[in-house]
Amino acid sequence: MENNMWGAIIALVASAALEQINSNVVQNRQSREVGNAMRRQREYQRQAEKIAMDNADDFQQDTRADRQNEIKQQLTEQYYKPVEATQTANASNATVQGNVSSDYQQAKAASDTNQLKAAKDFAGLYGQQESAYRLRQNEGLKMADNANQIARINNFSRGMDNVDQYAIRQAARPDGALSFGSQVLGMIGSSMIKGQGKPGNVGFT
Fold it and tell me: The organism sits in which domain of life (predicted)?
């Protein structure tokens, strides 16, 4: 009888131990899922903030001036190069019958130079005017693209948050095997103790 009592105590203690182990497993598993979810959300937030900050940097006065000057140079070259090529080709193909004076040659060279200078000045003026429009256009396109990127990140964040919340709820569920083992040991221990109280089992010490 005394052995049965000790067996009952051991079963009940083992049942309580399994229950505690199960509780610890659940807490650790849930804490891990919560931590992973928080890290993912922080990463999404970091990505969105970086896009916003980079976009803000683009509107710094010095940055805009440098970018507009770069656009101006590109446009100036784009407009001037064809004129320069055409003028050079025309000068090479031009022929003059008979002897010409050095004054004429100098005058023609000066005229060609002036025409090229005028073309370059016009290309520079047009590039300056057009660069302001192109800069605003590029900024608008980039802002729209950044807004789309942030919206996609927000969508990913919400979708992943739903997945994480489900994983956290699943992690809160007790381990089936540990729960079953704890219940069985508890039932065995309780049954053994009850058996000690039946008639004829009194005075077992």
Answer: Bacteria
In a domain, 180, yes or no: yes
Residue 105 counted as domain residue: no
User: Coil, strand, or helix at residue 101?
Assistant: coil
**Model confidence pLDDT, tens digit, residues 66-76:** 889 999 998 88
What is the distance between the alpha carbons of residues 58 and 143, in angstroms, rounded to a whole number?
A: 10
Question: Domain total for the chain?
Answer: 1
Question: Which residue do the tokens 């739903």 mark?
Answer: 162
Integer Rg of the chain from CA = 43
Relative orientation angle of helices 61-93 and 102-171, to the nearest 10 degrees: 140
Longest dimension (CA), the chain: 148
- Judged against a pLDDT cut of 90, whether residue 151 lies above it is answered with yes
pTM of the full structure: 0.57
